[in-house]
Structure formats: C-alpha cells, structure tokens
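Hi W., the iron/sulfur cluster complex you wanted:
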Amino acid sequence: MPPYVVKDKCDGCKGKEEPLCEQICIGDLMTLDTETGKAYCRSLRDCWDCMSCTKLCPKGAIEQRIPYQLGYHGAKLIPMMGTDSITWTCVDINGKVERFTYRTRNKK
Ligand code: SF4
Ligand code: SF4
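Structure:
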C-alpha cells in the first residue's frame, strides 16, 4: 500500500530543509521533487507500508492506496491524527466512505 501524495495538499512543508515525511521514513524513500516542491515516494516497491509518512503529514496530503487484492484501484485510507486518537477514513472503489477511530494513547 504505497503512499500517494495529493499534490494540491502538499506544501512541501513550507520550504523546510527536510520535510516531515522525509524525516520519518526510515527507508529514506520520501523526498521532494525539486521542480514542483511536492513530495513523492521515490521507490514504491521498497515501501513497506508502515504508514508513518501518511500519519505524520500535517497537511493530510498523503493517502495510502489499498492494494488491488483488497480494494482495487481507487480504494484508499486517509488518516486524521488527534491528540490521543487516530481516525481512518476508508474509501472503497464505489466511493463508499467508512470511518474508524482508535485510541493511540492510554489515558492516566
Ligand atoms: S509531510 Fe506532507 S506537506 Fe510535508 S512535504 Fe511531505 S507530503 Fe508534503
Ligand atoms: S509508508 Fe513508511 S516506508 Fe513507505 S514511504 Fe511512508 S514512511 Fe516510508
């Protein structure tokens, strides 16, 4: 499920020397296109689908495509990080939307 960058949403982390998606990817796969200033994954086949870049992007610009075995073209997962939860929006190939929210931190 490689990341897909929605170009209209990505602001290149506003000119940061190293954008957040690049910082978080331990495979060193995310980078900025020097011409467009937008991020992209430079080797989709090497992505191990950890979704770290997807969850960290402050603009919500990275969607995780669902592999064809599960969802076929057009199906996607979009995260929205909260302070102690994450909400996943799942869009299937017919455009049907479902949302799932999970706690990410234990409250004391
Ligand atoms: S973290 Fe998001 S906004 Fe920043 S460069 Fe990556 S995709 Fe673009
Ligand atoms: S999903 Fe994980 S491995 Fe793939 S590009 Fe994003 S941070 Fe890197």
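The CA atoms of residues 68 and 86 lie 24 Å apart.

W.
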